[in-house]
Design goal:
The chain is of the alpha+beta class. It folds into two domains: 86 residues, no CATH class; 231 residues, Bira Bifunctional Protein, Domain 2 (BirA Bifunctional Protein, domain 2, 2-Layer Sandwich). It is 42% helix and 19% strand. It contains twelve helices and nine strands. The strands form two sheets. It has a seven-stranded mixed β-sheet with strand order 1-4-5-9-8-7-6, sandwiched between helices. A two-stranded antiparallel sheet has the order 2-3. Strand 6 and strand 7 form a beta hairpin. The chain binds 3,4-dihydroxyphenylalanine.
Amino acid sequence: MGAQRLDEVRAAFLADIESAGGDAAAVENIRIRYAGRRSGLLLDLTAALRELPNEEKRDYGRALNELKKLVADRLEAAKSGAHTRQASGPGFDVTLPGLTLPKGAQHPVHLVRQRIEEIFLRMGYDVEDGPEIEDDRHNFEALNIPPDHPARDDQDTFYVSGGRLLRTHTSPVQARVMEQRKPPIRIIVPGKVYRRDSDLRHSPMFHQIEGLLVDEGVTFGNLKATLETFLHALFSEHGVDVRFRPSYFPFTEPSAEVDITCIFCGGSGCGVCSRSGWIEILGSGMVDPRVFEGVGVDADRYTGFAFGLGLDRVAMLLYGIPDLRQLFVGDQRLTRQFA
Ligand code: DAH
């Protein structure tokens, strides 16, 4: 009975390894079933040796050793070169498609950033960037937000050592560029920003894009025309209306918040726009002369406008993503949909 069992196991093993083809996981399962250290079939066959009558032990032992070697060799071959083994074996079909690597896709936030950059590059803007670890002066003071200013409370800042912080907005790059360059300045600044905030609509890291234009004779009319052109292009598929509401930012005066008609209901009111028909999309205003003074730009000669918006929010709107946090878990099932 012992020798017969060996033959059965050998036949079963050869059939299994054949049907595994080049599949590494299947080969591993076979290894565990036959050669597993704790409960493999070869272990059972070895234990059975003890039960055999003495005269059968020698032949059985020899056959068992041969089987062990066969199993070890075939497993090794299957593991190390499953595909080359197949390729050199009989019946290899050279017309089978090759191994394909899973393809990645561009992230929705990146797609939105590219789209916005293209619109502003057409209008003659440059793309700038700045440090994510900022100093207090650029993140706050140069933007007319002194130490005791209540606007600081709106931005739950992550402070790091040496009085530095993770920038809470992309606005500090306005100040950095104006310190280094004379007007005319026409820039947009995409980048990561950080605030201590986390829920369906907030994440501790998110993305903004800042805009700044400084020249002689720049008016609020220029600001309006620029942002209307921009928003009509960004939401061109939706044909949105744009409205300006008076608002307040420390670094602009006057300031305006800009809304578009809700792209989900077309302005009639729905859950996404809180029944208002409008969705707030960006902040903007004319650069406050105090900001110019702080960075050495002649406020009598130059005027300018600035604006800032959240890229993640635009991605959520354009692609209908309900939870901001889905953007940052790295699940390809999300990103592949928008490629
Ligand atoms: N920095 C502002 C924020 O993070 C956004 C902003 C508003 C930027 C108005 C601007 C602006 O340049 O003019 O909330």
